[in-house]
Amino acid sequence: VMQLGDMDDFVGAPGVMEADGDFVDIILADPGATFAPGATIALNDGQRLLSAHLQHLVNTDEVGSILLPETDLGGMPAMITGMDAIDVITLANGNEVSGFSILAGMDASAIVGTDITGFDINGNIITDAGDEGIDIDSSGLALVEGLISGNTITGSRDDGVDLNGDNIDVTFLNNIVTDNGDENLDIEATGEFRGLIQGNDLSRAGER
């Protein structure tokens, strides 16, 4: 049975565990919700962190595919503001992060992950990250694999997006990644890059 956690305004780090000890499958933030200042979120394998101002397709065993939210679509994206030197969202395997406005503090990145596969980062607005907007890394042996699409990432102190690993298989589609301090998209593959890069605006890097 799929479990859903619903986030209202002014919440802290999401309550990602149900009373029975199981982790929820989907964390759905209300349109315009504001997470408590300094929030940091560490997702567990397979969890989806979704802002309800966008509609999301969810597959269930009970009723097949449904759309969330069913009502009250629209409004502003949910806002997550981090603190200095602590990354805002840390990914595990098979996570989705969709539809958020994310502000990371000094020396902190908005979305990070190490040795992860199957991630989906889409529809987010990342502004003025104190380190990198998105930082996906590997220890050298793991495959870095996932999808980054439809995000707007501007004003990061270092790279807008940093993909660093041995073999990298990332699809990078229709993102606006501009005006970041070093590279807008920095791919460092010590092995092979097997991804797809298409339809992105990667202009004006290194101008901060």
Walk me through what this model shows.
This protein has strands at 4-7, 26-29, 41-42, 48-51, 56-60, 64-68, 78-81, 89-90, 96-98, 100-103, 111-114, 117-122, 125-127, 134-137, 143-149, 152-154, 161-165, 167-173, 176-178, 185-189, 196-198. With 208 residues, it is mostly beta strands. The strands form four sheets. It has an eight-stranded parallel β-sheet with strand order 1-2-4-9-12-15-18-21, with no helix packed on it. The termini are far apart.
Q: Averaging pLDDT over every residue, what do you get?
A: 83
Backbone CA Rg: 16 Å
Strand order of the largest sheet: 1-2-4-9-12-15-18-21
Q: Name the helicity range.
A: under 10%
* Outline type: globular
Largest sheet: 8 strands, parallel
Tally of alpha and pi helices = 0
The gist of it:
The chain has 208 residues and is an all-beta fold. It contains no helices and 21 strands.
Name a few traits of the molecule.
208 residues, mainly beta, 8-stranded parallel beta sheet
Question: What's the topology here?
Answer:
Blueprint: E1 4-7, E2 26-29, E3 41-42, E4 48-51, E5 56-60, E6 64-68, E7 78-81, E8 89-90, E9 96-98, E10 100-103, E11 111-114, E12 117-122, E13 125-127, E14 134-137, E15 143-149, E16 152-154, E17 161-165, E18 167-173, E19 176-178, E20 185-189, E21 196-198
